[in-house]
Design a protein that fits this description.
By secondary structure, the protein is mainly α. Helix content is 62%, strand content 0%. It has helices at residues 9-20, 23-39, 50-68, 89-102, 106-117, 122-129, 133-151.
């Protein structure tokens, strides 16, 4: 049987690398995702979005592994922080952005990556994360605000003033 997954492998891998910051762990996550998708293909509803279904599987595997054992993530290296002499300003900004991205909560990072990197709609993102669309929108707003704060050098807790 030919499965309609191959065109989405690059997107799955990119999302996994952004989540995990480690190519080897990301490849394992992609492999686990594809394995589960093949085994559960009979549950896929024809006519629905294969890409969103695959991201849902990946997200669920990631969350299950994360909640089962925090040690699973203990081998993830911190974002690259060394800069070679003469590195372009754009590379420094990209490095700072990656550091800020990885300082977000897992929930905020997932929403940012699915909407911003993978360009899923709010509805698709809500489906992948099993959340209401409003929750996706509010998490995205908070994540964007926190990224802005981190990029401006504010490393303190993100607190709102309530009057």
């Amino acid at each position: 049987m030919i499965y309609p997954f191959t065109e989405h492998i690059a997107n799955l891998r990119r999302y996994a690398i952004a989540l995990l910051r480690d190519r080897s762990l990301a490849d394992d996550l992609v492999q686990d995702t594809l394995e589960r998708a093949i085994n559960k293909y009979s549950l896929f509803r024809q006519g629905s979005d294969v890409r969103a279904w695959l991201f849902t599987i990946m997200h669920n595997i990631f969350v299950n592994q994360l909640s089962r054992s925090r040690a699973w993530l203990s081998n993830i290296p911190p974002p690259e922080t060394s800069a070679a002499d003469g590195m372009a300003e754009e590379m420094l900004v990209a490095r700072d952005f990656m550091q800020a991205l990885h300082n977000l909560t897992a929930e905020q990072r997932a929403v940012i990556l699915l909407v911003g990197l993978e360009q899923l709609s709010y509805e698709q993102t809500a489906q992948v994360l099993a959340l209401p669309v409003g929750t996706v929108m509010s998490r995205l707003g908070r994540a964007r605000e926190r990224l802005r704060q981190l990029m401006e050098g504010d490393t303190g807790p993100s607190l709102r003033r309530v009057k």
